[in-house]
Amino acid sequence: MEQLIKEVSHPLETDTDLDVLLSEIGEARFVLLGEASHGTHEYYTWRMHISKRLIREKNFSMIAVEGDWPDCYRLNRYIKGYENSGESAKDILKAFNRWPTWMWANWEIVALAEWLREYNSGRSSGKIGFYGLDVYSLWESMDAIFAYLEEKDPGALQVVQEAMDCFEPFNVKEGFSYAERSYGIPSSCEKEVEDLLVNIRNRMPWFDKDPEGAFSAEQNALVAVNAEKYYQTMLKGGEFTWNIRDRHMFDTVNRLMKFHGPDAKIIIWEHNTHIGDARATDMKQTGLINIGQLLKEEHHKEGVYRIGFGSYEGNVMAGRNWGAPMKRMRMPRARQGSWEHLLHGAGAHDKLLFSRDLKHLVSPVGHRAIGVVYDPDYEYGNYVPSIIPERYEAFIHLDKTEALHPLLIEPDSLQMPETYPWGI
């Protein structure tokens, strides 16, 4: 097995080593870039290199990430140079205050955002966008709708206020608390957020000449509907909330592609558990789906190319439990017999592999997945049984990786890390 991996793998050291990957991607309209953790520096920087080349060489239209719509839309406005959109990417990203803040409030994304802004400054039209696909931002999305309508259409504020008033008795500003406090109560705010969505859609033809602003208001209303549904069902257990979340992200991708027109192309940054085909893992047995599966099923004729990422050992940014302070943690060597262990055994260096060369791997193998909550001393359950060539079209193995660099509050921490590669 290790000998075969040696024969079919491609070295990955510099940006030019991506040439073969760009050739394999071809004319695909959907390129999904994964990660095996939410806190690894090299996953962000290699996805950045791939994304830059897709934008420059293959005319991709946007990057969409596993982040909240309202936060990411503010960054989208900045990188497109909209009026009153902010002075720097750093200032905007410091306002990303939903835990885990380090996922997007980090120096790696500052570098990407500033590059996108500079790239867009030379374009009169077709500016590259940056959007959030996730479903968690219930209150933030309603606040964003209120602020937009207060300026553009004050007559529509009543329906927004009714939705906000519905949540007020729960005395919360966080979805998990809403789920806990509303559990077992017959009434919910489902009708109010659905009425909000209908009202926004009915008024869209009369909004101002900023079509993206109107689109954003509608998207925030959709987030409110699906977030309320997500939080209402999360305490019931089972897989339903996972599917609500990934279907929302899938639908958001489709909306973005339709909004940007028939020539649109999209780059998606999400965890491997979202972008790798769920049908090639044990997720299938429990009825779980994900965005990688849904896009492949619906858009395979347009080209869907999914790239998984993984590493053998190093350090990672994570929290010991949900809401805990971020911490740079040791990531131990991958366990014996895992996919990452096999790749390391085939040579302790970074490499790129294509699934077309791995068709013989028809049995599931453990594939490491680290979330925002992590304990390196209890890592056994962090391996997802996966048929690798069916889960991705390509895989990037980074043998030893480091934790990413968060934007911390302390002033002495607000310095660009010296470890940034290639002067990015």
From TrEMBL:
CDD domains linked: Ere-like
Organism superkingdom: Bacteria
The organism of origin for this protein: Sinomicrobium pectinilyticum
One Pfam short name: Erythro_esteras
A GO BP entry: response to antibiotic
InterPro entries: Emycin_Estase (IPR007815), Hydrolase/PRTase-associated (IPR052036), UCP036794_erythomycin (IPR014622)
Name of the protein in question: Erythromycin esterase family protein
Gene3D superfamilies: Biosynthetic Protein domain, EreA-like (biosynthetic domain), EreA-like, domain 2
